[in-house]
Write a structure and sequence with these properties.
The protein is mainly α. It has a domain at about 1-50. It is about 45% helix and about 10% strand. The chain is built from 5 helices and 8 strands. A hairpin with a 2-residue loop joins strand 3 and strand 4 (about 25). It is elongated, with a radius of gyration of 32 Å. The model is unreliable at about 40-80 and about 95 (pLDDT under 50).
């Protein structure tokens, strides 16, 4: 049996099951909160999800399994691979007192600083932080519009249009923040994860290209330095030879 913790909202199997004064306590594996199971079989404030073993697996009238009916409803071709419908609502329940870092988007409980990036929340001044400053207001407005469209449509095409605009307008950091925050609120959003992975790969490619260019520049500089050293040695050698001849002209 899966539970939805009444304190942190995490869903999954309980870490332990205990008896306390006739009540059953289901310990949350995420935060350790003891969810009380009342006589009706529901955790106090939490939600119990039946496990596959508890669910009724008998076929529906007509001899078809529920999964077969779902496949028929979707059609013979199945869902559009370019559209992944994901709810726009955040995965974190409204009653959960989750704190979200405004720098990296990580969610946590009762902390003065982000456990992921180390940002001190007391230093946060809304409207004055680097991520709040808009260099190109019009481009940012268009990026916001495309972002809303991507969330509404839930398609790869819409997300790609958003990313293309951000890359062309120099708003890659803006796009990265949107996707990081989206992933923090909706871990099940596969398109957000896909775009973040693509951004990481682009960053790695740029970094490797920059390092390769720096290596080539260092080789060129080293070769030029070697040539200068050879010229200096040659000139000094000629000067010493002329000086020697001037001091001892009768030796030759």
């Amino acid at each position: 049996m899966k539970i939805v913790c009444e304190q942190c909202g995490a869903s999954g199997m309980p870490a332990s099951v205990k008896q306390d004064a006739g009540a059953v306590l289901l310990e949350c594996a995420s935060c350790g909160h003891a969810n009380k199971l009342d006589t009706g079989g529901e955790p106090g404030g939490g939600v119990a999800d039946p496990s596959p073993a508890d669910a009724d697996s008998s076929p529906e009238p007509g001899g078809r399994e529920p999964e077969e009916d779902a496949a028929v409803d979707r059609g013979a071709e199945g869902p559009d691979p370019n559209t992944l419908r994901v709810s726009r609502e955040p995965a974190v329940a409204a009653h959960v007192p989750a704190v979200q870092c405004r720098k990296c988007g990580h969610r946590q409980h009762g902390k003065d600083s982000c456990v992921r990036c180390g940002f001190d929340f007391s230093l946060d001044v809304p409207g004055e932080m680097p991520w709040d400053i808009e260099d190109d207001v019009e481009a940012t407005k268009e990026a916001v519009r495309l972002w809303e469209r991507a969330l509404d449509e839930g398609s790869r095409g819409a997300h790609q249009a958003f990313m293309t605009h951000c890359l062309d307008a120099g708003l890659e950091e803006f796009a990265g923040r949107r996707y990081r925050f989206r992933r923090a609120d909706r871990p099940d959003d596969l398109l957000a994860a896909e775009q973040l992975d693509a951004m990481v790969e682009r960053g790695r490619t740029r970094l490797m290209s920059k390092l390769d260019a720096e290596k080539v520049d260092r080789k060129i500089d080293a070769a030029a330095l070697n040539r200068r050293i050879l010229w200096v040695v040659f000139i000094v050698g000629v000067a010493l030879a002329l000086l020697f001849l001037s001091l001892y002209p009768n030796l030759f």
